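CO-FOLDING WORKSHEET

Operator: S.A.
Ligand of interest: S-adenosylmethionine
Run index: 206
Mode: holo prediction, single chain
Checklist:
[x] sequence pasted
[x] SMILES validated
[ ] output reviewed
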Amino acid sequence: MSWYAEHLVPRIVNLVCSTPGVSRWRRLAVEGLRGSVVEIGFGSGLNVRYYPSAVERVYAVEPRDAAWRLAQRAIAASPVTITRAGLDGQHLSLDNSSCDSALSTFTLCTVGDDALAARELYRVLKPGGVLHVLEHGLAPDERVATWQRRLDPLERVLADGCHLTRDPVAVLESAGFALTRLEQRYESGPKPWSYFTVALATKPLD
Ligand SMILES: C[S@@+](CC[C@H](N)C(=O)[O-])C[C@H]1O[C@@H](n2cnc3c(N)ncnc32)[C@H](O)[C@@H]1O
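OUTPUT RECEIVED:
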């Protein structure tokens, strides 16, 4: 792992992903989280301040120590018990059907195998549990999508594996989730990075 990916990218993400525009989307994404929550790609803890009061504990999954260190102030200031529960959202060390909710913000774009991560979240959620997702992804406009495909290889190198061309909706549906809320539109900013999806993906009752 390079020094750039371990130390610099978490700081850049912390800055770029904490703008007022992105924070409005975070508030939307966390609405309704409750009980025990697994959050993959916890990063620098930018969602912590928006957790609703119904959240009791959070299992944070984050590979980068630098990001975890940046998160410490937010964790200390939160009334929620937040523990680091692993390093890889593709292989969670949580029991089947053990979590009430799950959260992934700008992480399905980055994990090596987004389909595997979505299936893991499905596995650890209780039936009726909800995965809250906020992602950027493949735009519906061909001109933008063409640019996304061109820029994707560079993005992966510069942003520690992040893809511009993933389709979070397709991945969630393939994992077995039912989408119970879906909002997709451009946020302000360069279009290849700003086609946002906020979704609630529910694990059906048995
Ligand atoms: C673009 S950042 C988003 C961070 C945070 N979720 C946010 O919204 O600010 C992507 C995060 O996913 C993490 N990540 C990368 N691979 C991962 C994996 N296999 N499992 C869990 N998290 C991973 C990165 O270290 C990084 O913190």
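REVIEW:
The pocket of S-adenosylmethionine is lined by residues 13, 17, 40-41, 43, 46, 61-64, 67, 88-90, 105-107, 110-112, 162 (CB under 6 Å).
Residues 179 and 201 are 4 Å apart (CA to CA).
[x] output reviewed
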